[in-house]
Amino acid sequence: MTTARWLAEYAWLPEHAEPTPDVLIEVEDGRIAAVTPLTPGSRPPAGVEVYADAVPLPGLTVPGLANGHSHAFHRALRGRTHGGRGDFWTWRDQMYAVADRLDPDTYLALARAVYAEMALAGITCVGEFHYLHHRPDGGAYDDPNAMGAALVEAAAHAGIRLTLLDTCYLTSSVDGRPLTGPQRRFGDGDAARWAERAAAFQPADPHARVGAAVHSVRAVPADQLHTVADWARERQAPLHVHLSEQPAENDECRAVHGRSPTGLLAEHGVLGPHTTAVHATHPTSADLSVLADSRTAVCLCPTTERDLADGIGPARLMADAGIRLSLGSDSHAVIDLFEEARAVELDERLRTRRRGHFAPLDLLKAASVAGHATLGWADAGRIAVGARADLVTVRLDSARTAGVPPVGAFFAAGAADVEQVVVDGRVVVAEGRHLTVDVPAELSSAIEAVTPA
Ligand SMILES: [Zn+2]
């Protein structure tokens, strides 16, 4: 049995409005075995036997953060798409140029560096919305799941958990036009063949699990949606879907099917308690009721939505309807769950010109326990007995956080303030450095290998 004892200067415990000072956290075999808040002010003097072997954790320790929505290869586009005007659709063409250049080896190198960047940011689990399945011409690799296997291996190298959301992507428009050009490698032909390939991928690694995704109502014909939904339901696996990211998607869906994307997904069995709608930036009020009644969760990606000029999702209305909110860095314009979390509140302020929509605890939960749940790791994201020992310690003495009360960390700290990260009881980041990956060097070489000159 491996054990560790940490003495957190502050730890954010479940359902506490504010962090608690002086918390002894004991870990055994990757799980939290005991959580003992010491009496305020009773921090033991050095040498007191009962705490003598506890390693001090200066700063604020929060549960592991979950990145609910990732396309690892989009990281190669950071800073390269700002040269002109345009919108989501022009950005997408640049993204396809990178997608065209990836193979299992270059994707392993890129994803390993990206997931290690996530570890540095306090992310202990990622949901990879994976649709780069095949060769650029659409033909299968010798192992038809070679790209998914590369992502699982990349997460292992980076020391974080991964839910591979194997994405069904069959058509290029709501009215069923075929995939062309760089999209060809996304497709399996039909949902039955997608299901067959996805079922064949069963990684035994304890850090990984497999879920499913419907890319969007653009990419899966209505009469095949149930195949993906049934596949996930039979396995009680997470099911994710891009939803109403663009007004154009809503318009096309109404024109072709006479209902909103949310209505179409509901009709074909895609929504439910194991389903997460990603973005949901442009829902109607009727859509929100459907999402809430079906207990579908929502994953907001605020830094991507602002980067792509997508709009602001109605986060407060969703929360009021009882919809669980989680967070993702999606296109990785930024990998910083603190930034995603505060954007939920700050975007709402811009929309309403009022402050104070979400409490700090709400933001923490969206960034941690709610995200883990949407990825199928219900035992993670809380500093509580029995939970996975994912502990993220944030400095409160950096230039950004000095003088900030611990409860204000989500409005002041960023990824650069993460000092230590423990995943399943294992230290992955110490003193702000990844223990096994030279993140800046590996990012730059991996990106250089896949970006057009
Ligand atoms: Zn996405």
Secondary-structure blueprint:
Blueprint: E1 3-11, E2 20-28, E3 31-37, E4 55-63, E5 65-70, H1 88-99, H2 104-120, E6 123-130, H3 146-158, E7 161-168, H4 191-199, E8 208-214, H5 222-235, E9 239-243, H6 247-257, H7 261-267, E10 275-279, H8 285-293, E11 297-300, H9 302-307, H10 315-320, E12 325-327, H11 337-352, H12 360-367, H13 369-374, E13 391-394, E14 418-423, E15 426-430, E16 433-434, H14 439-450
The protein binds zinc ion.
Outline the structure in words.
With 453 residues, the protein is α/β, with parallel strands linked by helices. It is built from 14 helices and 16 strands. The protein has helices spanning 88-99, 104-120, 146-158, 191-199, 222-235, 247-257, 261-267, 285-293, 302-307, 315-320, 337-352, 360-367, 369-374, 439-450, and strands spanning 3-11, 20-28, 31-37, 55-63, 65-70, 123-130, 161-168, 208-214, 239-243, 275-279, 297-300, 325-327, 391-394, 418-423, 426-430, 433-434. The strands form two sheets. Strands 3-2-1-4-13-14-15-16 form an eight-stranded mixed sheet, covered by helices on one side. Strand 14 (418-423) and strand 15 form a beta hairpin. The structure holds zinc ion.
> Helical region count?
14
Global morphology: globular
Work out the number of β strands. Answer: 16
Distance between the ends: 51 Å
Radius of gyration: 21 Å
Query: Biggest sheet: strands side by side, in what order?
Result: 3-2-1-4-13-14-15-16
Share in β-strands: 15-25%
Task: Looking at this protein, list some descriptive labels.
single chain; 453 residues; alpha/beta; 8-stranded parallel sheet; 14 helices; globular; binds zinc ion
